[in-house]
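Try this one yourself first.
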């Protein structure tokens, strides 16, 4: 990635700090970055003030305890943790209120400047990062409020960085509106549209696997690959997030954002360098060329390029294949979960087939799938290879296609190759060459925060790309709204509706 270009930010203001994202992912991610022993990371986080804010009444010491616990969990050194906890603050404020924002931003600058003097570059302009850990529905209102602040606060915003979570808007038009409004506050380079899948070590490892590998690089194209599947199934259910999830569903929550980003790295041309311009141009080019599949049917039992389903009551954690439920976790039907409006017909499992209309990929279906409450929750990218053009007569055996399987969680790469069968030199069999990669010390959110804190947007989504991703899924969303695709059901703990069969083949 490139050298840091902006004044180093010093104060991280988290709007919506009482929420689920801050607790489960953001603070642990920042803490994993703070625990890093890499000198550049240590310099970046030195003197950082972590300021939480929300409407919920909360004391400073309560917030400091939360920060302290996250730092301890990540193994941050005691002396570093003490300084960070002492500098941490919590401000009760409504992020949609111009007056409240004025007050916190003006106040934070004073704190930021003083803490900046503790860091190695005491002469730097005090920097501010505002992280929108907020429900997507209010992000536009907050952006508008930020564009109308006092002269003092506006001056501070000139060097600020805004980190905005997905989903970015609710269709391409609202994403474009949000882009325009954010640009009234800061310039494009100061906006980080966060998709933490871009920070996942395995997703980033794809770059090395694909481009710096003599065996794999030449075959990563439509001449050799028949089909690409990107699967992210979870055994978790709703986990109390009905307020957000019931209005999004699996397609918007996972495919529209995370899985299209993964696709963009799977399918991109080699960027000239891993910097914000080259890397994001390469991924953007892929997404601009991506559309809903128009070729022959790919999903079994339907001529449509998409499917959707919702889980009914069941047990997750038993043996999904045998139906054995011992030691499993029982789950109510999605439609009966607290806060769910069943008439919205929100899907908890979505599949969509797309095509990437480039010289490299024309004609290859890309199947994207993500579901909740799945019995055997696979998280992987599967590339099915085309058969070789010629097999010598006399060699007999396997019909199973060869595959390259990249495990996203846990991190692994498996080459499923045809070789001679055990004990029979003329019989063919399939063997796996497999490598498991160590878990990265920095979490996906830590990786994203490295970019945000360092002012390097390589791993954040460009404004036009945020709009493009909505353009890609719009035909599917519209056909679902028109009820042209039935909402099917599957038992929690199963692998999806029985009628869907095994299109996405397990190992
Ligand atoms: P929450 O629904 O938990 O909301 C976060 C906080 O926002 C709340 O605690 C609340 O704080 C504040 N808030 C809620 N409604 C309003 C309102 N009307 N006006 C002002 N403030 C409000 O969201 P999450 O933390 O789950 O998610 C935040 C963002 O992160 C979303 O965009 C989500 O899509 C994204 N995200 C979340 C993930 C997750 O696992 N949670 C994963 C990936 C992305 P208070 O009441 O104190 O003001």
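Now uncover the answer:
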């Amino acid at each position: 990635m490139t050298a840091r270009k902006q004044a180093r930010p010093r104060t991280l203001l988290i709007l919506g700090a009482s929420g689920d994202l801050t607790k489960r992912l953001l603070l642990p991610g920042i803490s994993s970055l703070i625990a890093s022993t890499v000198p550049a990371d240590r310099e970046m986080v030195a003197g950082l003030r972590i300021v939480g804010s929300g409407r919920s009444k909360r004391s400073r010491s309560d917030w400091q305890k939360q920060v302290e616990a996250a730092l301890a969990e990540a193994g941050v050194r005691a002396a570093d943790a003490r300084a960070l906890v002492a500098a941490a603050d919590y401000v009760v404020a409504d992020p949609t209120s111009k007056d409240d924002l004025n007050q916190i931003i003006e106040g934070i600058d004073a704190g930021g400047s003083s803490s900046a003097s503790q860091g190695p570059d005491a002469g730097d302009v005090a920097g501010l990062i505002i992280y929108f850990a907020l429900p997507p529905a209010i992000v536009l209102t907050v952006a508008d409020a930020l564009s109308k602040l006092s002269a003092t606060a506006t001056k501070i915003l000139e060097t600020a960085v805004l980190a905005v979570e997905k989903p970015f808007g609710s269709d391409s038009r609202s994403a474009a509106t949000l882009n325009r409004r954010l640009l009234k506050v800061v310039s494009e380079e100061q906006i980080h549209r966060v998709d933490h899948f871009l920070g996942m070590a395995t997703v980033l490892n794809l770059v090395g696997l694909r481009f710096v590998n003599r065996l794999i690089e030449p075959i990563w194209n439509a001449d050799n690959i028949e089909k690409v599947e990107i699967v992210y199934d979870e055994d978790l259910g709703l986990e109390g997030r009905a307020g957000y999830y019931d209005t999004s569903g699996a397609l918007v929550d996972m495919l529209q954002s995370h899985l299209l980003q993964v696709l963009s790295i799977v399918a991109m041309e080699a960027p000239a360098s891993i910097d914000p311009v080259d890397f994001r141009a390469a991924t953007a080019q892929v997404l601009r060329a991506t559309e809903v599949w128009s070729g022959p049917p790919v999903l079994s039992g339907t001529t449509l390029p998409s499917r959707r389903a919702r889980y009914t009551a069941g047990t997750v954690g038993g043996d999904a294949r045998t139906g054995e439920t011992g030691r499993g976790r029982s789950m109510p039907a999605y439609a009966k979960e607290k806060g769910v409006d069943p008439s919205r017909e929100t899907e908890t499992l979505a599949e969509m087939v797309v095509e990437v209309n480039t010289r490299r990929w024309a004609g290859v279906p890309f199947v994207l799938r993500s579901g909740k409450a799945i019995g055997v929750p696979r998280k992987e990218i599967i590339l099915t290879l085309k058969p070789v053009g010629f097999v010598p007569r006399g060699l007999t055996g396997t019909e199973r296609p060869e595959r390259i399987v990249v495990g996203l969680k846990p991190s692994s790469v498996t080459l499923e190759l045809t070789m001679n069968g055990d004990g029979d030199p003329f019989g063919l069999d399939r063997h796996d060459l497999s490598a498991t990669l160590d878990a990265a010390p920095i979490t996906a959110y830590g990786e994203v925060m490295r970019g945000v804190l360092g002012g390097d947007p390589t791993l954040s989504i460009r404004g036009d790309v945020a709009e493009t991703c909505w353009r890609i899924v719009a035909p599917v969303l519209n056909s679902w709204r028109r009820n042209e695709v039935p909402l099917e059901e599957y038992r929690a703990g199963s692998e999806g509706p029985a009628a869907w069969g095994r299109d996405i083949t397990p190992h």
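Discussion: The chain has 14 helices and 19 strands. The radius of gyration is 24 Å.
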